[in-house]
Amino acid sequence: MIAADPPLARLRRDMPDVMAQLERLWAILPDARLVGGAVRDLLLGRGVTDMDLASPHAPESVMELLRHAGIKVVPTGLAHGTVTAVLDGRPFEITTLRRDEETDGRHATVAWTHDWREDAARRDFTINAMSCDSAGVVHDYFNGQADLAAGRIRFVGEAHQRITEDALRILRFFRFQARYGRGAPDGAAMVAITGLAGMIDRLSVERIWLELRRILVGPQVVATLEQMRDCGVLGHVLPEGCDISRLARLLACDAPVDAILRLAALVVGEPRAVSQRLRLSRADSTALAQTRGTVMPLPGMDAARLAPMLADHDRRDLMWRTWLRQADDSGAPDPAWTALRTMVDGMEKPVFPLTGRDLVAAGCNPGLTVGRVLGQVRQWWLEGGCTADHAACIGRMQTVLQHERHNL
């Protein structure tokens, strides 16, 4: 549903500071326009994060005009015609109007143009090809407003051509269909995607993971993955294999929205292999691997059984394992699992009260003996539900030391 307020009227009402900054930019670059996602989301009445503009001036001219007006400007992507103006700490990307000279499915060689329609024609979807000038007039060369109102995600021009220019548009299509689309995906787009699904293999895994992460935490994730599977895309994104039904069961349990948790439910391959292929960050790779851990809190366990788990494992890892186990066991909301997680969430992480210094102070020789004795006392502390305090652990330590000396 298109919002009732024109884009700039909404900005003046809801984001007056941003509107004031845009007016400063328009005083310097009167021919510049808001473009892309900002126009789309303003028309929908949704939150806007990035305010991107386009200008018919060459990037060097844009930089000179901004600097002359005392505005900080950063040459963030001169080869692609992009500079960034910074006003009161807020960045505004300004890109010179472009046309593609050459594309290879991943990168494009561009040339500058003064033709707004030509620039809009190189964009991916009609809903992203609109622009808004300083007077608030929305320029819409490819019926983007009608598509936006109808929940229709269409490529600008021929879908086949748009995809061969940049294969990442295949994944972007599904992400935008999930967020802005209604009903079945555009038939022409799906035919083109099915025929060109293999182009996914040309993309860097970093770009693939960035889009997959956004899909995983977005709306309609199960339906989106099913569409990707049916046209042959998902097999190129996750060649290790996946189980969409397990992810659906996880979502049915009302699990937290987290890309790694959802990826753990989806993939059937060995987590470390998946992490390496997708080049996940160290933190994400570790988190994904930990979801396969064997230590598992279960409904009905009391604090004495849960405390040792919490002492030895990250709380988030334990909680995620419970969500995945619930998905496997029932795939539905369950008060017993909810009660378990409430208990785990409310428990303080037990901290073993002894350190190596305590053993050295008691006369234990530094080295292997300290580690061995400390490990035995800690195991005793864990088996007792982590309830023994410092004094009790000191007493146990002395007993272990006596036994060690007796056996010498």
TrEMBL record:
GO terms for molecular function: metal ion binding; nucleotide binding; nucleotidyltransferase activity; tRNA binding. Its cofactor is Mg(2+). Keywords: Magnesium, Metal-binding, Nucleotide-binding, Nucleotidyltransferase, RNA-binding, Transferase, tRNA processing. It holds the Pfam family PolyA_pol. Residues 32-154 form the Poly A polymerase head domain. One of its GO terms (biological process) is tRNA processing. InterPro entries: Bact_CCA-adding_enz_type3_sf (IPR050264), NT_sf (IPR043519), PolA_pol_head_dom (IPR002646), PolyA_RNA-bd (IPR032828). SUPFAM superfamilies: Nucleotidyltransferase (SSF81301), Poly A polymerase C-terminal region-like (SSF81891). Residues 191-240 form the tRNA nucleotidyltransferase/poly(A) polymerase RNA and SrmB- binding domain. PANTHER family: CCA TRNA NUCLEOTIDYLTRANSFERASE 1, MITOCHONDRIAL. Belongs to the tRNA nucleotidyltransferase/poly(A) polymerase family. This is CCA tRNA nucleotidyltransferase. The lineage of its organism: Bacteria, Pseudomonadati, Pseudomonadota, Alphaproteobacteria, Acetobacterales.
